[in-house]
């Protein structure tokens, strides 16, 4: 069943190109983005003036990634919120609010309650879900299914990448409805998404190298993760994977926050994983991160850098370097998350833990 793999998670990591391709398939026809079930009229979609993404855990991180794309493409304010916080606040919602509920299982209690609350307030709810006919899509006004296939490993991998892709399709559908992107621009963005399964496939060729790096740091007490822009939620996701699987203290930070506190944590030998932006795509962010890395390296950190292939400037600051293919900035999370999944799995495996069934965790959290 594990297809010759030691654990499901590794199999599911390797299934990510297919999960992405399946999630995108059939959603761009006759020059238009189409969702699966749309019980929201085109007019109502045009009238949306605010977007909330509500979700838990990794699904929440997929929302944080999508915020960058949806705001950029649609010129709409996007708030991303943990479902467990959203439902107990008094969020400002009305019929022009689109609430995107992201859930692999479609049964997560907090996300479901957030959906119910949003609908009571007359907001439109769109579910992004990996499970056909689950409760969250059943109670939503529109649905876009991710087609990652069943995810057995408790730690989300392929469902997370598929959620990012699906959230992006939601963003493109909104941009199309609102006219903030011309049809040829929507087509181009979709084509770039369609190139991602091949890019992720390329990252999979670095799995063995990443596993070796993981074994070298598996004795550490803690690991920090740094990123900027879309690399920030990737850092959060990398830290979550490591907590879940290796039971290690792990934190993700926005690199710009280092000086505001976290740099005090840096000590000799502490592994710090840095998610680099492209030197070409976001040159300013890139140079800021290079200076962040040099600062933490000077204080003794052991830097593990995820960078675009051919990024020479970062090399002198990388104690370990994992190269990922060059892709458009907004799509980088789809490639840069993969080594972090492998790192967490392999550190956990070196420590002798059951990767597919980490302690204290359930695959689907149907109670609060
Ligand atoms: C992390 C993980 C969890 C889930 C979270 C939401 O690896 O799997 O954080 O992402 O429990 O679950 P769903 O997406 O089913 O609502």
UniProtKB/TrEMBL annotation:
Location (main, coarse): cytoplasm
Cellular component terms per the entry's GO annotation: cytosol
Any GO BP: protein N-linked glycosylation
Active site: 363
Domain SIS: 41-180, 213-358
Location(s), subcellular: Cytoplasm
EC number(s) given by UniProt: 2.6.1.16
Reaction catalysis annotation: D-fructose 6-phosphate + L-glutamine = D-glucosamine 6-phosphate + L-glutamate
Function field: Catalyzes the first step in hexosamine metabolism, converting fructose-6P into glucosamine-6P using glutamine as a nitrogen source.
Name listed for the protein in its UniProt record: Glutamine--fructose-6-phosphate aminotransferase [isomerizing]
Species for this entry: Amycolatopsis dendrobii
Full-sequence portion shown in this chain: 253 to 620 of 620
């Amino acid at each position: 069943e594990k297809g010759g793999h030691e654990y499901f998670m590794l199999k599911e990591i390797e299934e990510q190109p297919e999960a992405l391709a399946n999630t995108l398939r059939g959603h761009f026809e006759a020059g238009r983005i189409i969702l699966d079930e749309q019980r929201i009229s085109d007019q109502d979609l045009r009238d949306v003036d605010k977007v909330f993404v509500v979700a838990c855990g990794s699904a929440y991180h997929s929302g944080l990634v999508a915020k960058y794309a949806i705001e950029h493409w649609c010129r709409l304010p996007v708030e991303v919120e943990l479902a467990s916080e959203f439902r107990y606040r008094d969020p400002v919602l009305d019929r022009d609010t689109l609430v995107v509920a992201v859930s692999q299982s479609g049964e997560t209690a907090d996300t479901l309650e957030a959906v119910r609350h949003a609908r009571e307030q007359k907001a439109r709810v769109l579910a992004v879900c990996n499970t056909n006919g689950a409760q969250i899509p059943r109670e939503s006004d529109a649905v876009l299914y991710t087609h990652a296939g069943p995810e057995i490993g408790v730690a989300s991998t392929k469902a997370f990448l598929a959620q990012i892709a699906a959230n992006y399709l939601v963003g493109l559908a909104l941009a199309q409805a609102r006219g903030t992107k011309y049809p040829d621009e929507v087509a181009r963005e979709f084509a770039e998404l369609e190139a991602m399964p091949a890019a992720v496939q390329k990252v999979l060729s670095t799995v063995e190298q990443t596993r070796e790096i993981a074994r070298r740091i598996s004795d550490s007490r803690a690991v920090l993760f740094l990123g900027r822009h879309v690399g920030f939620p990737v850092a959060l996701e990398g830290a979550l994977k490591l907590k879940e699987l290796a039971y290690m203290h792990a934190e993700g930070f926005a690199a710009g926050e280092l000086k505001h506190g976290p740099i005090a944590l840096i000590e000799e030998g502490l592994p710090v994983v840095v998610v680099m932006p492209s030197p070409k795509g976001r040159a300013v962010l890139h140079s800021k991160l290079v200076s962040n890395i040099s600062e933490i390296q000077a204080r003794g950190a052991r830097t593990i850098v995820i960078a675009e292939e051919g990024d020479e400037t970062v090399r002198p600051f990388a104690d370990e370097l994992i190269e990922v293919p060059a892709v458009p900035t907004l799509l980088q999370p789809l490639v840069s998350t993969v080594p972090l999944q492998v790192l967490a799995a392999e550190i956990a495996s070196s420590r002798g833990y059951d990767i597919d069934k980490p302690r204290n965790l359930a695959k689907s959290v149907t109670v609060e």
